[in-house]
Amino acid sequence: MRRLTLPLFVALLALVPVVLPSSAEFYVTLLNYIGLYALVALGLVLLTGVGGLTSFGQAAFVGVGAYTTAWLTTAFGWNPWLTLVIAFAATTLVALALGFITLRMGGHYLPLGTIAWGISLYFLFGNIESFGGHTGLGGIPPVSLFGMELKSGREFYYLIWIALMLGVVATQNLLDSRDGRAIRALKGGVVMAEAMGVNTAWYKIVIFTIAAQFACVSGWLYAHLQRFVNPTPFSLTQGIEYLFMAVIGGVGHVWGALLGAGLITILKQWLQDLLPKLLGQSGNFEVIVFGLVMIFVLHRARDGLWPVIMQRIERFLPSGGDSRQVEPAEALPRRDRPVGGDTILEVQQVTKRFGGLTANNSVSFTVRAGEVMALIGPNGAGKSTMFNCISGVNPPTEGEVRFLGQRVDRLLSREIARRGMSRTFQHVRLLPTMSVLDNVAIGAHLRGSRHFVHASCRLDRDEERRLRAEAAKQIERVGLAEHMFDAAGSLPLGKQRIVEIARALAADPCLLLLDEPAAGLRYLEKQSLAELLRKLRSEGIGILLVEHDMDFVMGLADRIVVMEFGEKLAEGLPKQIQEDPKVLQAYLGGVE
Ligand code: ADP
Ligand code: MG
């Protein structure tokens, strides 16, 4: 049933111009506009809904598409298909440049940058003489397809909706891939994703550029549908309206773009007729209503209307099965491992200061391949800070960290991950609405290499099968097979920690950093975790472990480092540590 939804919808769409009588031309026009707007909103679903980035400048990108073709076709007589390529290239360049400048600064710079971009382009369109100033440019030629000129709205309808459907399918494909997982991690999971090797800044630029490209295509279509352009439809106000569409429709859902564009367009039509009559004067009063509707929708359904509607409908549909299986696939290649006993991690006099607070003070220790090194100490001793120093999440103020013989203390966490270090977090960092399988597959990010364009065209299926199979293997290994397809956030906290271990293992690491992995586990679960860690150790993986459960640590660790107040208090074999009077004094408060 689910698989039939899209073909049925497309068939219905295809019939519209055939079925509607010529007296209903208005509805064809309306659908054309909905299609054009939905294409822009689709980009915002990816950018804002999934990626968590806000752009007010989409209308300006629509303008780039429209004005490029308007100008080049009228002034130079160029073929519209050629101008599409040029407009696409120009948009890509602008989006990349704008993305590089604003996205690296993070925070509010993207919204502000896109506002500035939207305003300046609007005035640019209005003030360039060869663009016809505020009166605009007319006489834009129609588009020809297979020798047929698409002059009427009915003929153009197909072009618009084919473009939109291609956009929808490409976006869905992209989101359901290795790149899609990385993109879905951008909203609230940047630290985790970077530690798994994801270049988050790059993915932000990618989705910003894709959203701009969708807007550009919409603008190109618009220019050849209207055969006339002026600056008004590309203003900042329109940019905000596109955001309304995406947010009201369902900001994280591909089909929400269509719903939002449809609702807003129809509502606008209706309000523009009704409100001036009611109020007795003309003006853009509909914007006020949109604002109120937006507040209401955000209050009642934070994720927009699409998920709410789907929830209602889904009760009547058999549940979809396709994403809930893992197909067998060839195992991914594994990295070369250091020989057991070799030193793989050297921490040398690492100091980390937070303002006046010294969280780590000149701490040194080593970890060897095939051993479990435990880092213990009271709360606030600086253990998690040390993990962040080692893994590049929060680099040390002074001192050196060497991993596999090379200095890594000035590298980004994703570069360290690439070298074979993987970690879990004390405060679990999973993407709660994503399945356990998808979460774990993020760990294998660096073991895939297909480009996001491949993903959009479904040319990544081979690799994707292998990544999913790897994730499934690690989930089974840590004993969570029954939760494979559950939302990660629905698991008890102890099990979420185990999911983090599976995610770290999916990276095929040679050094594993585990920050309090046994917290929240029951006795038997702790025992099977200890069993797993012993097995990993026997495979030659080095494990650095922070843990408060002393039975767990003493039964497992080969060596122990004790920390207190940011300093190393003692180091030795478990037996030595247990008998060390300094440790007993500090750690157990002097209990005999
Ligand atoms: P542990 O993991 O051993 O319990 P932490 O490494 O989390 O200890 O913390 C050590 C000290 O550093 C604490 O006093 C904590 O408040 C401080 N600290 C940790 N992270 C930060 C940070 N990002 N900014 C400021 N202080 C921090
Ligand atoms: Mg800690």
Summarize, please.
The protein is an alpha/beta fold. It contains 23 helices and twelve strands. The strands form three sheets. A six-stranded mixed sheet has the order 8-9-10-5-11-12, sandwiched between helices.
Report on the structure:
The protein is α/β, with parallel strands linked by helices. It folds into three domains: 2-12 and 30-319, ABC transporter involved in vitamin B12 uptake, BtuC, CATH 1.10.3470; 340-420 and 509-592, P-loop containing nucleotide triphosphate hydrolases (Rossmann fold, 3-Layer(aba) Sandwich), CATH 3.40.50; 431-507, no CATH class. It is built from 23 helices and twelve strands. The protein has helices at residues 2-19, 25-50, 58-75, 80-103, 109-127, 153-175, 178-184, 190-195, 200-226, 236-250, 254-279, 286-300, 305-314, 383-391, 413-418, 436-443, 452-456, 461-477, 493-505, 523-538, 550-556, 574-579, 581-587; strands spanning 143-145, 148-150, 343-354, 357-368, 372-376, 398-403, 406-407, 421-423, 511-515, 542-546, 559-564, 567-572. The strands form three sheets. Strands 8-9-10-5-11-12 form a six-stranded mixed sheet, with helices on both faces. A hairpin with a 2-residue loop joins β3 (343-354) and β4 (357-368). α10 (236-250) crosses α11 and α18 packs across α19. The longest helix has 27 residues, at 200-226. The model has no long low-confidence stretch (mean pLDDT 91). Residues 383-384, 426 line the site of magnesium ion.
